[in-house]
Specification:
Strand order of the largest sheet: 1-3-2
CATH superfamily of the largest domain: Winged helix-like DNA-binding domain superfamily/Winged helix DNA-binding domain
Number of strands: 3
CATH topology of the largest domain: Arc Repressor Mutant, subunit A
Number of helices: 7
Structural class: mainly alpha
Order of helices and strands: HHHHEHHEEH
Strand content: 5-15%
Helix content: 55-70%
Shape: elongated
Amino acid sequence: MEDMEKRLAQQESEASFCTFLCVHQQTIDAVRKTLPDDDTLLDVSELFKVLGDSTRMKILFVLLVAEMCVCDLSQMLGMSISAVSHQLRILRQAKLVRFRREGKTVFYALADDHVRTLLSQGMEHVQEDD
């Protein structure tokens, strides 16, 4: 039985590697031309880090439905105003939310349609049946 397990493990390991050297240079060159530069890839990576927090995702999904002030967000999410403000600061820095003042009140909303698309595409992806 152990021998069979070892052989299966070896086959799986070998399947993840090329068994012979065959470089497809045209494909590599074509793909290389389309790759973003390292700074752009870093920016995209940072964006996904910001989106990788469930609290920030809750805030974004609330703002997908309605513009809200910090007090409303705090009440809605059961968080302190300070904690919500901290998360909003991160979301603003990532250009995912915008704000507007109305008197002394500051209202937050999603920055643009790109953010709406990211959220709806993400939901669509996780709700797909396998």
